[in-house]
Amino acid sequence: MTAGFFDAIAPVAYEGPDSTNPMAFHHYNPDELVMGKRMEDHLRFAVAYWHSFAWEGGDPFGGQTFIRPWHPQDSMANAKSKADAAFEMFRILGQPYFCFHDADVRPEGNSFAENLKGLEEITDYFGQKMEETGTKLLWGTANMFSHRRWMSGASTNPDPDVFAFAAATVKSCMDATQKLGGQNYVLWGGREGYETLLNTDLGQEMDHMGRFLNMVVDYKHKIGFKGAILLEPKPQEPSKHQYDYDAATCIGFLRKYGLENEVKLNLEQGHAILAGHSFEHEITVAASEGMLGSIDMNRNDYQSGWDTDQFPNNVPEVALAYYHILKSGGFTTGGTNFDAKLRRQSLDAEDLIAGHIGGMDICARGLKAAAAMLEDGGLEDALTTRYAGWQTESAQEMLNSDLGTIFDRVLAEDINPQPRSGRQEILENYVNRFV
Asked: Which H helix or E strand runs over 179?
């Protein structure tokens, strides 16, 4: 066992909004019913293994600040020590799920065979810990962006041997996810993009990425994996331009390569902001196409131009995200993953617990506000009123008509429409009543 990393921290309990205890939940009550469903079952929280346990506190301008009992992360003994700490934190928080990259949970070997051996060993160890604690796996994935071999991409790499290494890595991670009963498998193409078109065959790289993803889907069916395959959009950083830029770009990519019925999206708030969108925009785009899978609930610092992956702290933003998730029917295999990390000055075990407490409370408040807005129906009523004209017989006939017929009608009926207010301020004020 990890020597006392979380020993001084008691399990976190729900104490209600009047509590002043910083190590208690003030809004997240897993058994509270929201729209007839337990809050825990709506939110489906999952701890991200990488930022909580594998990240060492570095940033683009400085190295390690965290000193953990499982450092250095270069042996299976320390990998198991890290797992002991992780599952202890899951117990303290009452987190129902976790998720991981292969590189987070096993040391980097000198060959694929060494990586595979480490992954298989820690997978068996995870299985024991999951059986003891009841914690489940929301999703697994492969880190194909950190090691130098991935500097020019994984499935899009100009070197076919890198493509092969990537394919073997994903197979091993899918096998681990299947063995652990994971509910999804995620692919994030951190280096699937380019720095300059001077040395990039964009069309070939896109085709290879599409073929790779088809191989993933084929293997899913071969092994009988019942979970969802998820693709995570991100516009830039680390690559100057990434092929999975945003939800709409990914949906177009999936349709081009015949994957629209096989793959859904894992959306991150921070990535949405980098793409110039709001989080609810990305959720709505995915949901409108039946491709909403799961979410990474983190945020960026709006004074920083890079992906800072902080814990959520903005209730109105979170409420609007969950509004559209609930409106689309809620999660099925997906959930709320905390792909969020401490600030590099927050060194203590207590900080790690407190970050998750705050994030879970913010999500709980957002969920309750979203449910209240849906039950009240004010936003839906406003939409119905604004688009009411399209319910008329003449409007529906126009959609099945042609330009010439519409031209004749406008002249004959002297149609001269006048603008009507979008009532944005009134609707913003409406939302503020709930958050």
From this structure: helix 160-179
* Measured distance between the N- and C-terminal CA atoms of the chain, rounded to whole angstroms: 42
* 104 is known as an active-site residue: yes
* Spatial CA neighbour of 313 closest among 328, 297, 295: 297
In this structure, the strands spanning 37-38 and 33-34 are antiparallel
User: Cβ contacts of residue 309 below 8 Å, gap of 6+?
Assistant: 51, 270, 298, 300, 339, 340, 341
Mean pLDDT over 221-238 rounds to 95
Nearest to 219 by CA among 138, 142, 324, 284: 142
- Does the annotation flag 381 for ligand binding? no
Q: Decide: helix, strand or coil at residue 424.
A: helix
Q: Is 307 annotated as a binding residue?
A: yes
Q: Note whether 17 and 364 are within 8 A (CB).
A: no
296 is in an annotated binding site: yes
CA atoms within 13 A on the CB side of 432: 6
Say if residue 232 carries a ligand binding annotation.
yes
Q: How many CB atoms lie within 10 A of CB 3?
A: 9
Those residues whose C-beta lies under 8 Å from the C-beta of residue 108, and which sit 6 or more positions away, are 74, 115, 147
33-376: CATH topology is TIM Barrel (3.20.20)
How many alpha carbons fall within 13 Å on the CB side of residue 162?
A: 20
DSSP 78: H
Establish whether 102 is an annotated binding residue. no
Q: Which of 84, 104, 244, 361 is catalytic?
A: 104
Over the stretch 372-389, which tens digit does the pLDDT of each residue have?
999 999 999 999 999 999
Can you give the pTM of this predicted structure?
0.95
Q: Which of 26, 27, 42, 101 does the annotation list as catalytic?
A: 101
Band of residue 189 on the pLDDT scale cut at 50, 70, 90: confident
- The answer for residues whose C-beta is within 8 angstroms of residue 97's C-beta and 6 or more apart is 44, 45, 46, 47, 135, 136, 137, 138, 183, 335, 337
Could you give the residue range(s) of every CATH 3.20.20.150 domain in the chain?
33-376
What percent of the chain clears pLDDT 90, i.e. is strictly above it?
Answer: 94
124 is catalytic: no
pLDDT at 2 (0 to 100) = 42
